[in-house]
Amino acid sequence: MKALERHEVDRIRELTLQGKMAREVADEVHVSIATVRNWRKRLGLDISAIRKDLRAQGKLETRCNDAYHPPGESPCWDCIHAVPDMQGHGCPWTIGAMFRDVPGWTVRRCRREGKEAVQILHCPMFERG
What we know:
The chain has two domains: 6-56; 75-122, no CATH class. By secondary structure, it is α+β, with helices and mostly antiparallel strands. It contains four helices and two strands; from the N terminus they run H-H-H-H-E-E. It has helices spanning 6-17, 22-29, 33-43, 47-56; strands spanning 106-112, 115-122.
């Protein structure tokens, strides 16, 4: 593993202080998620506290998974768009039971009992309702 250059460490710090998740930082700096987490620890940056402060200041949106949904639970159960209306408005995932990806969402796919399972980490359409 190569040593990070100063500008890469500075970028990890900057993005962390903006409340970016480890995967987002890793993708932008072109390092592994483990590297981002390691540097956050070395720099004394607590991402949970940073994100909590940013949300309290109104500088960070409350994503559907941040505050309300523990791992393994779906934000869909609390989303106003989950059940389509009679005019066909609603979530692309549920309209006509077509299970089409929602543009811009972040999911984790895995196999359970031989079937594909989708864990929704972030959905841009999420509205509590």
